Amino acid sequence: MPLLSRDVTTPTEEDFSQFSALVNEILSVRRHIDLMKWLQGSLQQYLPHDILIAAWGDFHLGLIHYDVVSSMPGVRSESAVAESIAPLLTGLFDRWITQDRAPFTINVNETGFTWDGVDVQGPIAEAMSSMRSSLVHGINDQRGRHDCLYVFFSRFPKRRRNESNAVKILLPYIDSTLRQVELLPNQYANPPVVEAESPLVADNGPLSDREAEIMKWVAMGKTNGEIGSILNVSSFTIKNHMQRIFKKLDVFNRAQAVSNFKRHYTQSDAARKLSQDA
Length: 278
Description:
Elements: H1 13-24, H2 32-39, E1 51-58, E2 63-70, H3 82-98, E3 104-107, H4 123-128, E4 133-141, E5 146-154, H5 163-179, H6 209-219, H7 224-231, H8 235-249, H9 254-277
Antiparallel strand pairs: 1-2, 1-5, 3-4, 4-5
Helix pairs in contact: 6-9, 7-8
């Protein structure tokens, strides 16, 4: 694989053809089953692994979302327990940061990967105990304002020498492929609370307390996903709120909404506080 390695051998036409085919396969990924087939298919030639755990969010606050992809029986995102998987991911993330966000590998003994201090049972914990090595790398999402961590676990105790270089090249493609797949409800660190939603209708009335609370977070630059994590609701719920807010404020985008909100609502809040203090 000279195309993705430090091998001085000039890549052949076949090497470029195989890499091009791998990238083109991304276009057909739409469901979790498609993602699993892609990861366990051609990608194995460059990054062999048995389990991939992708995690994103605010690792320092513990607001972590995750996706578990594997062909091993029962090893799925819906089988993961946030309270047990978060400590492992946080520890790996901290190490990635201390190593200047460079990829690194970990080799373990015959006990495999475990969660210290947590009583864990189930197919994922059992599978993790059979893993002997991992390759870790991440991406800093400047637009979404959060970090994404990817951990490739393998039953083989030694990683190939060129994998650190390969993951640097391939991770942006893996990241974009994962973003094409819709989230499952339990991929959140905390299960989102489903709020009762009224039909979206034109409304020029004042913002509700909930809508005003959301706008305060929007004014701070938070995304729908981040606000959903803070308020413990789904990003879809926040999106619905934002649509109603746009109608009420008579705006078309978030920047206009923030400007309108600061001009009218923050001033009215200050006036109300003065009247209460009088």
